[in-house]
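Inputs:
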Amino acid sequence: MKDKSALYASVYEILRRIPKGKATTYGKIAKRVGINPRFVGRILSKNDHPEKYPCYKVVRSDGSLGGYTINGKVDPETITIKRRKLLEDGVRFNKDNVDKSSLV
DNA sequence: CCGTTGACCAGGC
DNA sequence: GGCCTGGCCAACG
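Outputs:
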């Protein structure tokens, strides 16, 4: 993993490894691939593949959903979709935050 | 080339 | 419990 494009692939690979009913955080991924947390979000927002990778399984360390962008879409509805998809996967919620017991 | 930006994080108040 | 600050580091204009 030297190329920056490989970095993207690493992040997506991690998303695929998330078990059903679980979510992960930007910070955990960042540590895993060795980059800063901000860049994780940047990767997902600019180069995500919503049909192939569960980018919606990534939330903030405090359990809040953070953001959710699809193909440059910045509508407030997308964040609602993110929450619904997490629920469909069996991730437990505590009000508007992901239950920490559902984090990996 | 340099300043700003960002799907963040941890710490302090 | 919420808001502010500093730090992080690649990408963008």
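Remarks. Residues 12 and 95 of chain A are 28 Å apart (CA to CA). The two ends of chain A are 24 Å apart (CA to CA).
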